[in-house]
């Protein structure tokens, strides 16, 4: 993220692209629910994110400005992206990722049994923090890929061997009781982030 917000049309389009992809992969908005970059679309996205308890102050601030400037809009979007990045919301993310992965595959990625996954999805059991962290990480990777691939392409991306991962597939580095801050997952995220940068330009 650039340290200085200029608020140009290109900045806002790029930021809106990233924020909406994040929110979609995290299950906070329906696919293609936000397609514009005008202030009303930004307010809609901010309101949807706010319902999950994320970036509420920023959403309120935008509502208090009748005609927000481009810099105001860009600043809000940067805040939204940072807040989404830092805020696991398993209540929504189980459903968001369930649109991309079969339950059996998602259970392997997250390292839980299929029966536990179904209880977490239904809300019958609270998602443990370490499971929520893996779920959120996977949602962020999916959001990075969503601008370049459809759901089938995303699933295949995880299974393809990559030279930048020493000949291993991303899925191979997301096995067992992994932590998002481990070296392997971090390399997977970096690979996905490179695609986001290309698709947002």
Characterization of the model:
This protein is an all-alpha fold. It has two domains: 9-85, no CATH class; 90-199, no CATH class. The chain has ten helices and no strands. The chain has helices at residues 9-25, 39-50, 56-63, 70-85, 90-98, 103-110, 114-122, 129-145, 151-159, 183-199. Helix 1 (9-25) runs parallel beside helix 2 (39-50), helix 1 packs across helix 8 (129-145) and helix 5 (90-98) packs across helix 8 (129-145). The two termini are 13 Å apart. Mean pLDDT is 88; it is low at 1-5.
Name the structural class. mainly alpha
Mean pLDDT: 88
For the termini, the CA-CA separation is 13 Å
Order of helices and strands: HHHHHHHHHH
User: Cα-atom Rg, whole angstroms?
Assistant: 17 Å
Number of helices: 10
The percent range for strand residues is under 5%
Helix share, percent = 55-70%
Shape: globular
The overall number of domains is 2
Major β-sheet profile: none
Compact description:
The chain is mainly alpha-helical and 201 residues long.
Per-chain topology:
Layout: H1 9-25, H2 39-50, H3 56-63, H4 70-85, H5 90-98, H6 103-110, H7 114-122, H8 129-145, H9 151-159, H10 183-199
């Amino acid at each position: 993220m650039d340290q200085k917000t200029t608020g140009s049309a290109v900045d806002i389009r790029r930021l809106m692209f990233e924020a909406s992809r994040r929110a979609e992969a995290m299950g906070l908005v329906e696919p293609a629910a936000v397609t514009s970059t005008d202030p009303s679309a930004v307010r809609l996205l901010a309101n949807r994110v706010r319902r999950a308890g994320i970036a509420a102050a920023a959403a309120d601030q935008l509502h208090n400005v009748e005609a927000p400037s481009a810099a105001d809009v860009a600043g809000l979007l940067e805040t939204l992206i940072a807040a989404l990045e830092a805020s696991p919301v398993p209540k929504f993310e189980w459903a968001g990722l369930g649109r991309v992965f079969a339950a059996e595959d998602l259970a392997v990625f997250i390292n839980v049994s299929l029966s536990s996954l179904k209880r977490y999805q239904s809300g019958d059991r609270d998602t443990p923090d370490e499971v929520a962290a893996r779920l959120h990480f996977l949602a962020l990777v999916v959001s990075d890929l969503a601008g370049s691939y459809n759901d089938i392409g995303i699933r295949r991306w995880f299974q393809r061997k990559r030279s930048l991962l020493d000949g291993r597939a991303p899925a191979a580095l997301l096995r067992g009781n992994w932590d998002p801050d481990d070296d392997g997952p971090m390399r997977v995220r970096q690979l996905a982030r490179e695609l986001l940068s290309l698709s947002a330009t």
